[in-house]
Recover the amino acids of this structure.
């Protein structure tokens, strides 16, 4: 049992592949409460977070940052304790000696739904901002842009070998946001 004085170091934990040899995310993490650290392909720390369901959080991060999620380290706890989780998170960040990009200037990219309005092509921007468009037309344009971005994300994950089904929340697409359902 983890307590205030028994915090695991990040160094002491093993790397777990984000996508295993069968193309699956670490399914044994479903429903696990814990602190996790995400590493890129070179095993450089990108993000440290905690969750009541680590598996769901890892899926969200993979969709938001597919090129940065290659390895994960985890410390699970039996009962949710925000204090313990936050202490481990802060200890791991301190152990890293520098703030991971996902916990600093890029935190919103790691933790918030993808806003497709920020990644529109020039043609999509012209189409979206056309003064002749009513609200429904703009909503349809955003939905189509969200579908394009979704297809690009899914294609990049397929190239990585992911076989796990990823579904996006269809209601959010109308607002120009993408998030895993």
């Amino acid at each position: 049992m983890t307590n205030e004085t028994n915090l695991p170091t990040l160094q002491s934990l093993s790397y777990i592949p984000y996508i295993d040899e069968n193309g699956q995310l670490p399914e044994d993490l479903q429903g696990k409460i814990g602190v996790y650290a995400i590493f890129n392909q070179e095993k450089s720390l990108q993000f440290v977070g905690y969750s009541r369901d680590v598996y769901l959080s890892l899926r969200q991060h993979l969709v938001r940052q597919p090129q940065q999620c290659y390895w994960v380290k985890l410390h699970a706890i039996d009962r949710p304790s925000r204090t313990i989780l936050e202490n481990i998170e802060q200890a791991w960040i301190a152990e890293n000696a520098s703030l991971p990009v996902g916990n600093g200037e890029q935190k919103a990219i790691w933790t918030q739904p993808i806003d497709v309005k920020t990644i529109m092509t020039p043609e999509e921007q012209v189409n979206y901002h056309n003064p002749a468009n009513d609200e429904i037309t703009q909503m349809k344009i955003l939905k189509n842009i969200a579908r394009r971005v979704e297809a690009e994300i899914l294609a990049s994950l397929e190239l990585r070998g992911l076989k796990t089904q990823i579904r996006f929340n269809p209601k959010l697409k109308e607002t120009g946001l993408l998030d895993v359902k």
Q: What stands out?
A: The chain has six helices and six strands. Residues 16-110 form a domain with the GIY-YIG endonuclease fold (CATH 3.40.1440.10). The chain has two domains: 16-110, 114-178.
